[in-house]
Amino acid sequence: MADEIMRITGGTPVRGETTVQGAKNSVLPIMAAAMLCQGETVLTNVPQLSDVYAASRILNRLGAHCTPDGHTVTINAADICRAEIPDADMRAMRSTIMFMGPLLGRMRQCTLTRPGGCALGARPINLHLDAMEKMGVIIRCTGEQIVCTADKLHGARIPLAFPSVGVTENVIMAAVLAEGETVLTNAAREPEIADLAGYLNRCGAKIRGAGEGTIVIEGVPQLHAAEYRIMPDRIAAMTWLCAAAASRGSITLRDVRTGDLENCLDLLRRAGCKLGECDGTLFLDAGGVLRSIREIVTMPYPGFPTDAQALLMAVLATAHGTSVFDETIFEDRYKHAGELVRMGADIRIKGTAAVVEGVHCLHGAYVEAMDLRGGAALAVAAAGAEGQTVLHGLHHIDRGYDHFAEVFNSLGIRTERMVISTSSRGKTSA
Ligand code: EPZ
Question: Which of 193, 329, 333 maximizes ligand 1 atoms within 8 Å of its Cβ, making it the mutation to test the pocket?
């Protein structure tokens, strides 16, 4: 059997610059939303990710014509003729649940199974189903299949029990062609929501308040297609910043929206990093000793994002003092901690808390990515560790990062991606 690994040689401070990729968590719902629009949608600044190709395959199997070409994706949904997504496709990622809203908006029906994606806990879809039922959808669960039908979709008042990103996006996509007005309260405020609304409003939708806690959608008879540039990926940006911080180096990021990262940047400053920005370019310098941070709580936007929790932990593993994380969004999102301990970190998990005692330095080890951001965090830790780290589970990283190894090499972190025979696993060299 063969397997792919990345061998990262740490200990050299990052010195470099890179352009931040387009946002995975924006392009995926926008690709699904393109099903609602007449004509050819052209998306630019699209990251080259396995999740994007998975979404493209699903759109084509539904009868749309989706063509990824480099960092551009064109989608013409005129010929959509199916409303069922096979279980194997649903399991590819969490964001397959985003097809529910647009399929209902376009076809008034859909048959799905539960989505896949990173194993961060139960990740139920109850809030998705509740919201669709409020808009007139009849939902029948038969075994694994979730069968949704609606004579018509009507506007509704939908107070969310939790500001769920995916539910907010699904409601927007189901409501834009529904009859009447939908008022969504306690909505998620992540920047990707505003990006989705920006695309749909350019297509003729009437969405107000995206990015705030209350979103109002006035249904319209139809939408036309549009060209749209995907926003920069704020979590990819935080990944590269953390690689520079973990290696006590410096970095320049181009095409970054610092407004989307305020909470992350504030924590990096509190740890001792120096940051500056100018015209969409962000500079970070982490020379010197980094300090621990007593309390880091993951929260819905604009709070500290759960997707950055592992990344910051990889930095604070070698900061001076004790840092304490509280992961309040997902119930099982510390899988990376055990792998960081294999690299010499001192981390203890107590329920939703992770207590990180800073150590002088991490060392290279043989580690495994268990989910997308946890895997990226191990690479960040490897950048600052002494010696070589061999990272397995690259399929997780490929879901969300466009040419990860190439970016690391451009930052001066020696990174080799290679195929190995699995019989050699467990040895120190690949
Ligand atoms: C989105 O997931 C992102 N994924 C996640 O990024 C991100 O971590 C998450 O939002 C939070 O910011 C995409 O956008 C594709 P939620 P989503 O619904 O929509 C619970 C990454 O690494 N919940 O806001 O699935 C849920 O279990 C990924 O890029 C219900 O209970 O997140 C969780 O505890 C990982 N019932 C909380 O809400 C539901 O019906 C937040 O989930 C839906 C959600």
Answer: 329
